[in-house]
Amino acid sequence: VSCDGSGYMSPEYAMDGMVSFMQDVYSFGVLLLEIVSGRRNQRSFNLIAHAWNLYEENRSLELLDPAVRGGCSPAELEHVKTWIQVGLLCVQESPSQRPQMAAVIPMLSHQQAPGRPLRPVVCMPARTPVDLLNMEENTSSNELTITNLEGR
């Protein structure tokens, strides 16, 4: 599954039209990453993938908007790292992997340590028709099905 990285739409809503409270958690995570970075999550710039890559490389603070980065104290920079980690927890693929909002607030205020996020779905490489054909060559069937999914 791969999403185009546009907006605040959770993967379960984009793929199945399922609505839940955890969709709001996903949207909050995107918004939190946008506030920290000063950039929008959109088709032309996948903020979630960018934030994840920096997090994985232990360079999370590079996500922080350069306009405010220089004026932050070391303690404030530690808060920013936590906010990024919480934002990434909120944008997990499965709603069951996202924290409830009642747990997000204590994480943001350092009253509770956030868990380690998994790689968000929007960071997975998209499968192209060529990839699918190559996968097909390795199987015994000669059939190929390509499905284009669009959000509602």
Helix content: 40-55%
Distance between the termini: 16 Å
Percent of residues in beta strands: under 5%
For this structure, the CATH topology is Transferase(Phosphotransferase), domain 1
Give the strand tally. Answer: 0
* Element-level helix/strand string: HHHHHHH
Return the CATH architecture.
Orthogonal Bundle
Low-confidence stretches: 1-6, 126-132, 134-141
Question: What would you say this structure looks like, in words?
Answer:
It is a single chain. The protein has 7 helices and no strands. It is an all-alpha fold and 152 residues long. The protein has a single domain (11-124), classed as Transferase(Phosphotransferase), domain 1 (Orthogonal Bundle). Helix 2 (21-37) runs antiparallel to helix 5. The longest helix has 17 residues, at 21-37.
List keywords for this structure.
Transferase(Phosphotransferase), domain 1, 152 residues, disordered N terminus, mainly alpha
Provide a short characterization of the protein structure.
47% of the residues lie in helices and 0% in strands.
Topology readout:
Elements (H helix, E strand, L loop, with lengths): L10 H6 L4 H17 L9 H10 L9 H4 L4 H17 L10 H8 L20 H9 L15
Helix pairs in contact: 2-5
